[in-house]
Fold each of these.
Amino acid sequence: MNRREFLRLSLSTAGSALLANSCSPSLKTPSGNRDGKQLNIYSWPDYIHPEAIPEFEKRYGIKVVYDTVSSNEALIAKFQAGGADYDIVVPSNYAVSKLRELGCLRPIEHDRLKNFGNLMPRFQNSRFDPGCQYSIPYTFGTTGIAYNTAASRKAAFVPTDWDAFWNEHFAGRMTLLEDPREVIGLALKRQGHSYNTQDQKLIQAACADLKTQKPLTMCYTSDQAIIYLTSGDSWLSLTFSGDAQQASRANNNIKYVIPTSGTSMWLDNLCIPKNAPHPEYAHLWLDYMLEPQVSAALSNYTYYASPNAKAMPLIKQNLIEDQYLYPSDSILDRCEEIQDIGQAIFIYDRLWTELKCT
Amino acid sequence: MLVPLVIIVVFSFGYRDELGKFVPGASFANYLRFINGPYLLCLWRSLSLSFSTTLFCLVLGFPVAMWMAFALPKERQNFFMVLLTIPLSISFLLRLYAWITILRPTGLATFLLQSVGVSNPPSLLYNQGAVLLGMVYNYLPYMILPLYAALEKLDRRFIEAGYDLGATPWRTFFQVVVPLSLRGIVAGVILVFIPSLGDYVTPDLLGGAKYMYIGSLIQNQYLSVRDWAFGSAVSTVLLIIVSAGVWFYIKYGERTTVSHS
């Protein structure tokens, strides 16, 4: 295990420790002192270049406190408990629209952002937040299949589509994400349906398929996949593009594919909560994150794709050339965003619980 | 102490609106949903896991507590107490991750099995056995400590009297030692059973989240579905079961203690 994975493990542990301590989404406020110039960030573990915070602190004389969140749902729950006291949060696309509907976000003051134009045009006008009124794109990626090429050679089977998760050769060595929308979604996509299906019959059929798949699964996990791929415990994992890339840097045998049936793609965004204590610092942070060097460093470090056009020349060539990290339009056409589906979430939840209970 | 409990009970009669906000109400819909869904199976699984955990802790913990109280000299007893509590000072999560490192397919345990000639070792992690192992490992100290406290105070002359009256060691154990340490047993059982019922981290980490236990169900309702009302209803059901169990257990325990002293 190298330092980077250890860092990730310890961070995710710290993240879950936070979650365990605050089963009722607690009213925990950011750590650190409350007076003086301070910016409180609530983001994902290991989702920033290590030099980015010290550099910002030096330049503006503002102390940065970085707390970690484990899921979009936990983030939303925190807002609903009324306990969020952060200046910057990093929700994914569907969580942005949700937070916005709940009235939790503060409009972005675009005249304070001189670097906004650096973003690629298609990211300046996303479907969930036209005109980036409430959110600034941070990184994007896909959810796909990471597999171990040695195991794949041995089984004489190369995963190209979701069917791989039903392949007996990888029995007991597969991991899926602990996420109902992604897992039920892949079973829906495998049958040619949308990730955002609200038709109960189709969702039921997808879950019936997943029940036959369950005995082959080693575990459902969101934070261990990268570690197990690297160590060789997992031969086939449902994982995020950047995570797969990080695993493949540590273990040459790991390869990532976007399934031919298509998959989910997501965009993580920087947002300012409505009751942020320091909105002016938050805007400084947004503008700083939009700087080409800062955005490129982030992508070079996390392997997640940058939406920043000006950052492209500064990103490592081998990353840009990877068609699964920076997918071509023909691949993107087969992918879709996971959207908020309102009350249909109850169908997913009930069937997910059923899957987990049998 | 009571305020959060009251809030949970009140919440359990409300519902979740379109946006996932909690709306107060006065309906039993959440309770009906609980008894009509896959959720009862989940409750049953949790109860049986907690029951087995408690049983294993008791069976493994009692000999250790007896050995500490009866066989060790006083100063060694204190040393052993410290040994027992050392793991508790390390984060519960780190201890679970340590078990993952040992049990995973490329881990130490599989390697040892292979080196003694088991050609195709079974998978040790992510099954219900691993969950039970982790639970017993986590909660054993909470069983041993109250047992030890009870046994240490036990007047040895009762045991000698048992032998003098011709009882076999087993009979002395069951008719003298066990009844006299019943308070310790009650305390240990409660200290293990109740927290293990709500534990969702151990089943998720060592069971690979393949089986849902009541703790994860509640956590999911609060944090992923954001249906606080249903989460509260499940918590309330659990609360009633646990309180009824403890009340019955203490009442029964007290009576037995009294009749023997």
Amino acid sequence: MNFIQAYSRNIFNGLLVPIKSVAGSWSLFSILVKRDIVNRTSGTVLGKLWPVVQPTLQILGYWFLFDIVFSMRASRGPNYLEYLLTGMMPWICVSEILNRSTNMFREFSSLYRRNPFPLEILPLLIMAIPCMVYGAVYFILNLFLGGLDKAFISLLVMPMLMLWLLPLCLLLPVLGLFIKDFTQAIPFLLMITMFLTPILYFPSMLPEGMQQIIWINPFSDLMVVIHGLVQGGDYSWLNIVRPFVIWLFLLGPSWLVFKRSIPHIREVL
Amino acid sequence: MTSSAISLTEVSKFYKYYEKEFDRVREILSGSPRYQKIHALKPVSLQVKKGEVLGVIGQNGAGKSTLLKVLARTLLPSTGEIEINGRVAALLELGASFHPEMSGHENVYLSCAIQGLSRKEIDSVYDEIVDFAGIGEFIHRPVKTYSSGMFVRLAFAIATHIDPEILIIDEALSVGDGAFSRKSFDRIMDFKSEGKTILFCSHSMYQVEALCDRVVWLEAGDVKKIGDPVEVITQYSELMRMSAPKEESLDTANEEEQEEFEKDVEVKSVTAIPRILEVKVRVGDKTGQVHKIVSEESDLEITVIFDKGEGVPLASVAVAFSGGDGRILTSAGSVHDGVILSVNEQGQGVAKILFPDLALLRGNYYLNIALLCEKGIHLYEAIRRAAEIHVEQKGLERGFVKLPHQWIS
């Protein structure tokens, strides 16, 4: 019973403490968001356009390879380009967040090493910018592809991803800080995860044996739900329950690890 | 309503040493300790009253900085309870949170927000900060384009304009050069006169004694003594003298003592205003930088002429005699003697002091001059070894100075 109580409390705190911390330091949080944009764009010719130009170029590259060169087509459903755009934009967002999260404590060390600083806001901070930028681009994209209704539904996608990624954004920074090899491995792991997620291909294109394997990966469920919401594709409750269970399973321990690591972080750096 | 600004109960800090770095990860994941303790601060219980100025002294590695960092909340204590009533401004590492790519304006908002100010509160102090820092239009440029002086001025202005109730100072009672140095010193003195709580850590026993109501002496992470500044500092200074190795490091130990006299924590450059224009040393009818005198027979007269600066009260002057090993033997200051210096026809400040029948005993001595603020705390300029004095004597007395005495039969 004690274990369940402790586990539930960690799940509750893992969700609530970062949110409360951001609310309590809203002024600081909003300045840091701005700082983040300045950081990314200072000294560049295109300046503040880069956060939008970068994913656009990436998508153009994938589109050229898979649509023009490989001429991938689905037997039914939306056309390939629409499908690719709908899945790829959220994935780029996820990929950017997870990639950055492993280096989070090092990146922001100047803020907390010599100042009292609420470390709990950092996971939400590294998710905020990509979700805002890609959320805006995603909205405009879906406005063109599916009209105003679809565009409004697409606004749910980034906050949903942000919520789902919270446990990983609590856990990966700690692993990235204390196990340096992890930072090196993460781009590879993300690439493999992308290949195991139906983003570049329709699930129906896979050989029958492989079709079951991709559901081990929770991002496959999320992607199916995203396609379902935005493009009206099929998805079942199982596609929602599976990632939710994993989320519940991860959030408590992730928060515990994050909380335990706080006294160590300044010492290590 | 509590009268304590700071309350520490059994607060300690130890750093964790892991034989293998991976042990740290195992500890975080499992929750079971795998470290060896390296104590930086042993359990300390301490109450600092509101409006009290507490000095923190001790040798390097005694735990002074650790204590200040724990109080500034940049280090988490390993054990114990800390209760802090009021906003804390720490002058520990100024500008540490500045982002080089962001403008001064944006960094003001960022730094204040880190200190817990809301946007509205920052808006209300912004103009004061910019005005105090005095960096003009540079406030809209990235801080990476600032000179080190501008950087520290802005950082100091931010740290002291967040309306703190508690101020933590590590060594420097002023920052920057010239006029800003004086301005920043005044700002800190204003905090004292406004009755704010101040924690002041320093190696300058002179400053600690001049400013503090109480002193805590740390040794090897432990509180060795706490109490009246004169009592604690006397014991501390005595121990420092005794623990200085006799031979090779005597010079080093005394060097520090002499520097304490002249540097007032940090030596200011000659660009500081006011500044010394001329030092004249006269014995009999001879003036110069090197003098031969006879103990108890020669009169030594020192005249210091200084530019009194603008917009600041008339400065004070102190002189000190030191031995060849750097140890200060005796000193005299116009503030402590209650003397107000005069101004000559050219508008220059003049300090004249006479040592009649100078009772120094045989040996070589050096004269050191310091130009200080009207309170005798903030140093504008110091001249080390301004003159050299060779003393001869007729008798066989030993030591440095002959004290007035009489034999009673």
